Amino acid sequence: ALLRGGQAPRGGGPTGPTAQALLESEVVVREADKLLRAGSFDRGLERYRRAAQLNPDDIEVRAAIAWCEY
User: Fold this and answer.
1) pTM over 0.85
2) Quick check: 25 and 55 in contact, CB under 8 A?
């Protein structure tokens, strides 16, 4: 669609998350990493969960969530 001058699909879909969602997920993961290093596990867990909503296929985010919950 973009090559033909159309709009990017919104909200992911059958092909997975949009580029915007992937980028936002990476930013959120970095925030979560900083929070964990500062010892704020609850807030870090919230950010990792947000990243998982944006990019549900990211296995590393799922692992980080499990680690925080442990």
Assistant:
1) no
2) yes
